[in-house]
Amino acid sequence: MVRGAATVATRLVALALASGLIGAATAQDAPPVDRYPGAAAAYVVMIDGRLAWARAIDAPRPPASLAKLLTAIVLLEGNWDPQAQILVSANAAAMPAARLGLRAGDTLRASDALVAMLVRSANDACAALVEHSAGSFAAFANQMNERAQILGMSASHFVNPCGLDAADQRTTVRDLLRLAQAAYAHPAIAVAVALRSASVDTTSGRHLRFDNGNLLLGQMNGVLGMKSGFTSAAGRCLIALARRGGHEVWLVLLDAPNRWTVATGILFEAFDLAEQSAPSE
Amino acid sequence: MPCHGDESGERWRVTSSLSMGSMVMPSQTAEVCTARRADAAPVKTESNCQITENKRVGNKQTMKMHCTGAHPADGTLEIVYDRSDHYHGQMLMTSQEGQMTMNMEGEKLAGTCDPNAKRQQAEAMAAQAKAQSVQNTKEACAASVKGLETSAFVGPIAACKDSESVRAYCEHARTVEGFSTLSSREQSDAAVQNMPVEMRESMGHPLAASAKLCSFDVSQLRSKLCAGADGRSQAAFVVEQCPAQARTLAQRECSGREQSSISSSPYGEFCGRYAAQQARTNPTASATSTTAASTPAANQPGASNAPQPPSSTSPVDQAKNAASSAVSKGTGLLKGLFSH
Q1: ipTM of this model?
Q2: Which residues in chain B are closer than 8 Å to A38, comparing Cβ atoms?
Q3: Whose CA, among A125, A231, B47, B139, lies 20 to 30 Å from B58?
């Protein structure tokens, strides 16, 4: 026997002993290694269900628009009616960028607003949905925090449902990973975050087309999408999901100035490792 | 079963029962084929038992038996023929488990048989097993060549010693893909120290071990491969193994470009891997901000995915300032790469 159990076992032992690239992903219980100290203020990479690499995984950080994933979950698990007509308030229309360009008095379908919130990260669509659902940001944030607790996001607290910076609003990359996985389980969210572009029609007859803010979509083979975000306090943020060759990689980056390029490289290297670690027999 | 070939043997049905102390095993019956010779013993023997001092005087036959294997034993056998076609016998065996007695009764059957058939069958099976083993080794070595399993070629469990396998392994090791693979498996000294001593060479330093096996110089081969490497199709190799080439390429293909432009170019993978490599090796290459989440920021621009410059007081800028003072000259090339 040359390439039998003994050889493979020895290889696995050696791999488990190594640090950096090999170590974390092959030892189930080993803490994730900070392989990319220069990538982001906080990040986590999960490869095939295992936390492979991370930095400041439990450090409190502002969530930016990544919070919209929780907003979407709360909306979809509430009294969700995709055909409901959402009235855009003056407050919603005045939301800062990113915006869809909705005007006060516009109405649009709830499902369209949800897509705009997830694809364009449109704060006006987000605010309209939140106000329609709960009446106020504060009431909706309470629902978000209740749902976050159920999801096990114990280090998170949400104040602004659209992710705008707010005092006492915080999350961690660990919690965001959990959130992203829960969100992706909703088909409406999974479909929306994979769209490279979309459009909505308001009842006043305006046709609004928009592109996905996730620049990895369609650019890197295997990226299924997820969510990007930016605020001055949070920095440039990204959650990405990619599947390739039977392997799955989740990536959360918080405050990563070079998020798109570095995310591309990390995903490539994660798939390299997944290939190396996979049983070859 | 019909007999073929040499049909000179005699067929005997042998019933035996084994007892050890007060324990008696159920009797067993087997048919044996014995050569038609005066001293032939019509008893059932295993292939790992050898008969010696076989003598027949009158109607009494005695012999000694020595068995090896998992249950070695020595014994003496005495059988008495009460007729030409019937006998009673007893074998006394001594083994690690103790003394055993086997009582036997043999009865000659009608017809003939091939006394060599069993041996030939065993030899055929052995030959088949050997051929299968050779084939298995060949296939395993081919897989080890493909997977660059250094331990199959170097070290205590190396089983692929044939020149053809070694040549194929070395040929693979000398390629960009092979060199990259072996290099990525090189372990740190600390990790190697935790490995079994005999595995340190092949598992801890597979590139060095392969260089020794295949008689190549790692640096020279790296230079040669880098000279011919393509940053588009061999991005990982160029980023990891050819730093000077990678810097030049990053400056030319990645710096100052928008993500959409990078991704759609043939150098998208290279730019990504280069950025990741820089983030790996240079802690201040990208971001080091540790802004407390609970700190409210005044006049926030709001959530946006559109590329927009951070405010002058943003943590990103702080990180960049820190980075600019700490990063040595190569980082200058990355300015464009790490900013929008």
Answers
A1: 0.84
A2: 278-288
A3: B47
